[in-house]
Write the structure tokens for this entry.
Amino acid sequence: MNSKERVLRALKKKEGYPDRIPIQFDLCKQLTDEFAREIGIKPDYASSYYEDLTYRISANEIRTKLGSDVVVVGGTVAKDYVPGIIKDDITRNEFGMYMKPTPLYVEVVKCPLDNAETVEDIENYQFPNPYAPGRFEKAKRDMEKYGKDFFVIGDVEITIFELAWHLTGLEKYLLGMMCEEPWIEKLNDKVEEWSTAIALQLVKAGVDAIWLGEDLGSQTSTLISPEIWRNLFKPRHKRIIEKLKHENPNIIIIMHSDGAVAPLIDDFIEIGVDVYNPIQPNVAGSDPQELKNKYGDRICFFGGIDQQSLLPSGDIGKICEEIRQRIQILGKDRGYLLAPAHILQADVSTKTVKEMIKAAIKYGNY
């Protein structure tokens, strides 16, 4: 059984049980470079149109060699695009955001719409061309190489809410939203149009799943009330999903949100989401048994392994036990793709990553 069939069976899109629980993981640049040296493979980096998605869609050869059943692809910067140099290590991306690298992420230090006040201001702002030449060259190469044997996810995270506030700044966006300023709807319209175009091109290219979403939760609650999400964002996600499933009725929809977003899971199911990610441990509403009991017959799960404290600890015994428990609970009767709840950071050793993969295979047999 190859990896693609393993994932399709696990996510209940093909009849029968897989031979084992499938595995997926993402690696930060430091881990990617370390494994590249260890395995002897040059990292194949793909520069995403939004920098923090870069490592989701990079180094598929390294990850599959290590044991991932999944390949992740996505849109990159346009062909021949060169980030503008602002000062020192600060660059300007295609959206006009000023980006500064940190030890873990790339942060937006200036937003292109931080002074927007009117609908006209939003109308005058030029989004990057989602159809620009070269935007999907890397995705298509990876799909040609891996698509027959591995499950391919098209990444369109930061779909609406998160991309919108990165263009204005979070405080400005939330205030504008709460005050019902007209420019908010116009901005959301343009962001939805951008994300729909990116997602549709990935579906047409032949990916098996589309990974939508944004971080909507803190450790204790949603960042905005469920009612606001239902009124302002749920209809937009529903429209996107309907368009994707019209293009390919078999496309699998993954919805991502870090944090305590359990109050939205029924809504995700209602609008056509097939898989909920990342089941972040240690936040309100993320007890695996409760989630499986309540939603296991209506939605599949993807993630669940604690990356905040457990994996960085390097405690192999505890890591193996958590993996065993997640498989026993979330993997029962299928419906589970095992993964860390976040991209693996430099505070996780390569040894721990390899032990995590070994444990997933050891305990994952049906």
Q: What stands out?
A: The chain has a mean pLDDT of 96.
